[in-house]
Every structure is written in C-alpha cells, then in structure tokens.
Amino acid sequence: MQLISAIVYQFKHKFSLKKEIIAAGFLLLSFVSPLKSLAATKISKIYVFGDSLSDAGNFYNASKSYIPPSPPYYKGRLSNGKVWVEYLGDELGLSPTLFTDLKNSIPSEGINYAFAGSSSGLGNATVPKSLLPGVLGQVGLFTRYLRESNQQADPDALYIIWGGGNDYVFGGATDVNQTIANLSRSVALLALAGAKNIMVINLADLGKLPLTSNKPNSDQLTTLTQKHNMALAASLKTLSSIPGVHIIAVDVNSLFIKLQTSPSQFGLTNVTDAYLLCNFEDIIQGNLNICGSQSGNSDEYLFWDSIHPTTRVHNFVAQTALEALNEQSLSTSSWPQEFGNLQLVEQQITPANLVLAGQSFHTKVEN
Questions:
Q1: Are the beta carbons of 114 and 59 closer than 8 angstroms?
Q2: DSSP assignments along 107-147, one per residue
Q3: CATH number of the domain where residue 143 is located
Q4: What is the domain extent for residue 202?
Q5: Of the given ranges (25-39, 54-68, 104-118), which has the lowest mean pLDDT?
Q6: Which of 51, 100, 214, 342 has the CB geometry, 3.0–4.6 Å to 118, for a possible disulfide?
Q7: What is the mean pLDDT of the chain?
C-alpha cells in the first residue's frame, strides 16, 4: 500500500490543476447532455477482470466445454442466462471478446478476462493447481501485453474489477488485508498503464449464500464481508485522488440487502434457496445427473445455484453498475508520458511468477 500511496501523492501534487480543468469541463457537459448518453458515447471498450460472477465463458472454454454443464447452465455461464457484464455491455452497445477466444477473434470492443473460481490474486481458488489466472493475474497479463507491444491502455475504455469472494469462501482467508492489497494493486496497475475509468465492485454478504447460510462459519463470512467492503472503500478513496483517474464504486452489497429484505419489489419470491438443487462439489466436477430443481419460475429466485445469482438478478446488478457509471464524469485525459516505468512498477507490485504463469496459461489455452 506504500507504493500505491506514493503513486497517488506524486500525481495529486504534480497535476492537480490539470484535474481541475478536466473536471470543470465535464461538469459543464453534464448539464447539457443526459447522463446515460454520456456513458454510452464516451466508452469505447470494456475490459473485465473477475471471477464467476463476470465470467461469460472463459472457464467453460478452458475446461473444453465441460464446466459448467450446459444445460442446465446457460452456454458456459454460472447462471441460467447472461451475466451482469453482458447486460451492461448491451446498454453500452459493446460486447467484449472472451480471453479464451482471442486466438480466433479481434477484440475490437474490449476483452473479458474473468474466470470462474478466480482469487483476488494470481491463481484460482477452486482449482488451485491450475494456471488459470486470478484477478491480479488477469490484470498482469493485460498490462504485460501493453508493455510488450509498447501501448497504453485505451483512456476511453471502461475497466471493471470484481473479486475477492472466492478468497474467503474457498480460499480459507480469514483476514481481508491481502485480498484488499490484491484488488488495490490491480487498480494501480491499470491506472499506471493508462486506464482512466475503473469500476470496482464490493461484495454481497457471503454468509447469506445458500452454500454458507447454515454453516458454522456463516457469521464469520458476514463479518469478513463487512470488513472487506469497509477496507475496499477506504482504499478506493485513496486511489480516487489520482488526478485524471475516475474510480467508479458499485455497491452491490446494498443492492442485495434490498433484494433480500424487500423481494416483492423486485418480483422475487425466494431469496434464500438455490433454484438448482445440486451439491456444489458435483457442479465443480461437472456431474449434474443427480440434480433437480425447485418448482416454479427461476426468475423469482435470487440464487440460481448455491452461490450464483439468477440472470434476472445479474440484470439488477448491471442496472446498479450503470447508475453508478452515470453518476461519474468520465475521464479521457492521458497519463503524462514522463511518469515512471510500467515494467518497474509491475515488478514491484506483482510477483515474478505471474509472468511464467501467464506464459504457461497462454500456451495451455491456445494449444
């Protein structure tokens, strides 16, 4: 965190006047154009770094279309339909290319790096022996590519970071410090690479998932969620003081509280049980032959399985993210060229084995 504070200090004091001029310009613009059209017209691409909540098929492709079994899961998503970043992309007119599809596609509208099971760090919490990248690992692969191709991140793109839940539920983390450090480093890496509009999402109550709600560690997970969200908010406040960079904080925790306390307002009838009746271990193994489902309409459920929300709730998440995006004045100014060496910063805040893991992962996916 000392490095991140130093980055913030340097930019805050050297370029504060530039920030004020940019902010004034966007304040004037906000009075003469609708917020929604501002977001839609200013965002050129979407880059996504996260876990199963944002994975639109990367894990499915990497597992050779084995996990999650589709059907009943929807085309490789850990839900019964689109995930939230796809709904957000629909609103913005953008469809990011899956990282695992890069060999066959040109990513003209951004890239989705998210993998189911990703930790906040370098690896995967549910398949720890794999080379599947965690959130920090995904960001490292992206910034490494930029550095090696002598490019900067598109200042008009939206960069999304959502992770951490797997650290606590599957990774056994009982302290939030490392998770917050990983997420903060991810934001700092993106900012140093030239990203200007960075969306970061907090966690819903991990103690109230169907998987955890009746377990002995339910209260502990609720406490960890609270500590995580408080620490993340404090870190984002520090990072948001970097001139020219807009941190767009999305409060999913508050959304889920509303969904669980006033479900009828959202057309929900069940906010505690999973619609899909299956042991999560069976899901990870790809064995759903013994699984059934609840009666009734899945759109009336908060949870599709014991961890993941239904596609309808994903849509609510997308609308919440869009509202947060519309409240921000998007930045399009570039980082000053005289600021430090990205490669040196990557070495300082990203473990060296990330590069090796990234190389091996590319080989594994592309072969």
A1: no
A2: -TTEEE---TTB-SSSSBSSSTTS----HHHHHHHHHHHHH
A3: 3.40.50.1110
A4: 2-263+323-360
A5: 25-39
A6: 51
A7: 82
